[in-house]
Amino acid sequence: MRTRGFPPPDTDPAGAGALLSVDGLVKQFPGVRALDGVTLSVRPGEVHCLLGQNGAGKSTLIKVLSGAHTPDAGMIRWRGRPVAFPTPLAALRAGLATIYQELDLVDGLTVAENVFLGHERSRFGFSLRTKGNAEAAALLRRLGHPDIAPGRPLGTLPAAGRQIVSMARALSYDARLIVMDEPSAVLDAGEVDTLFRVVRQLTADGVAVVYISHRLDEIRQIGDRVTVLKDGRTVAAGLPARTTTTAELVRLMTGRTVEYAFGERAGPARRRELLRVNGLGRAGEFADVSFTVHSGEIVGLAGLVGSGRTEIVETVYGARRPTTGTVTVDGRRLRPGSVRAAVRAGLGLCPEERKSQGLFGEDPVYRNVSVASLARYATAGFVAPARELAAAARALTDLDVRPGDPRRPVRTLSGGNQQKVVLARWLVRGCRLLVLDEPTRGVDVGARTELYRLIRRLAADGVGVLLVSSEIPEVLGLADRVLVVADGRVVHEAPAADLTEADVLDLVLAERDTSGWQRANQGHSAVVPHDRSEEPT
Ligand SMILES: Nc1ncnc2c1ncn2[C@@H]1O[C@H](COP(=O)(O)OP(=O)(O)OP(=O)(O)O)[C@@H](O)[C@H]1O
């Protein structure tokens, strides 16, 4: 049943003084009313946070605003005038830029070429490349990043650097409003600070920012006002970001009170060693990594993006070939660099770049869940569809995937719900050792607790879990034992209960301080997800 929600407070009724105001916006997809009368009003120079659970309509709203989707009803006013941008380029030219998570940049071009993508011919042509470089450098300086060389190939930049280039691109069109869709999702703590500095610089210049994030603590740090969407409706408009409590925001988003609950840790009784990693290393990536995971145990790898966490777990899983060391499961050495051997031994990996790693867009949701375990639903070589559907539907309900119909094509789900589908796949597969790389990235606050409960339940059933997460409280809350990874090495190992968030930060930042922003990121661009895969269109 649709919740009609709370009447939005009347903070800016006629959008007086607004740069952008939206009223009664409706967008209908087959079977889903993604926007059902949305109101939004953004003032010049403010950071306006847009919140909502997975599937609430945030992406659809920004796509309608930027001309990527046509609304079915409602009014958009831009700088006081009614508008209907026919394309994203038209919106950009009018000063409304949107920076999606899947950044619209080209790896093979230089930084400057990316900055002026779309208008390079009219402004610079090929003979005027030097002028283009100089103007790009000026924009990068304005964003506080003279360290990014305009002639550098874009593909060599880490995620944080690419975002800066996207913002420089927006500024090259004289953007008055920049919409940022979960910009912090791929950044570590230090890079988020850099992002916030840039955002403050922009707003000081009078540029407004619409900021989408599932990390509620960020709202208070960077936001001025907050609008909350629920089921395609505005349930609160223009709340003060600094004084609205997290509990209140969560209640508005979910319609209930959610507390982060990690569940009870299972006792250490009857645990036996499942995985032993000994002296594992890969030239240029990480070295001398040794640890064990026991049945029923959750071992967390904490560290910054680029620290080597993902490379370590991918090497354990056989997706990368180690240059030194061994991986042993149940006392038997795994063939190095063989995913097949790892899977046969009972390992499963839910990768960081979930969307690009294996969603079949046109296939129904349930098939995307069951695809890794089809053999289980087969009799004499034929899959029993009812059993397949029932098993998938259970996992989807557990993770609160919405819309709940498992027969919908997976491409029509929101980004966060697509992530839950890939997680569900690994949960139903029934591995003995599950490797989860950033399991809650892009997952909303309500579903996180469900996911934590599921992970704990798996551990209680005897599954060993190797967890990678940038969110330190998540690692400390979920894991039994924590390995802190910095610059390709395990710098500390301790029971989670003996560590605080400050301890872990101190350990990773100590390493980072000696290396600096640029060195810390250089050569690690392959680690940083840069996902251009399909999203709901
Ligand atoms: N192309 C499409 N066809 C059908 N339904 C769609 C399409 N795109 C989005 N939807 C539906 O519209 C609703 C809103 O989705 P939207 O992507 O806007 O959510 P969101 O708030 O951005 O979620 P998330 O936090 O997961 O990114 C969802 O129910 C989604 O399944």
From TrEMBL:
UniProt domain ABC transporter: residue ranges: 20-256, 269-512
Molecular function, one GO term = ATP hydrolysis activity
Its keywords, alphabetically, are: ATP-binding, Nucleotide-binding, Repeat, Transport
Does the record's keyword annotation contain Transferase?
A: no
SMART domains cross-referenced by the UniProt entry: AAA
What Pfam family does this protein match (any one)?
A: ABC_tran
Q: Which CDD domains match?
A: ABC_Carb_Monos_I, ABC_Carb_Monos_II
InterPro entries noted in UniProt:
AAA+_ATPase, ABC_carbohydrate_import_ATPase, ABC_transporter-like_ATP-bd, ABC_transporter-like_CS, P-loop_NTPase
List the PANTHER family hit by this protein, alphabetically: CARBOHYDRATE TRANSPORT ATP-BINDING PROTEIN MG119-RELATED, GALACTOFURANOSE TRANSPORTER ATP-BINDING PROTEIN YTFR
- This one is known as Sugar ABC transporter ATP-binding protein
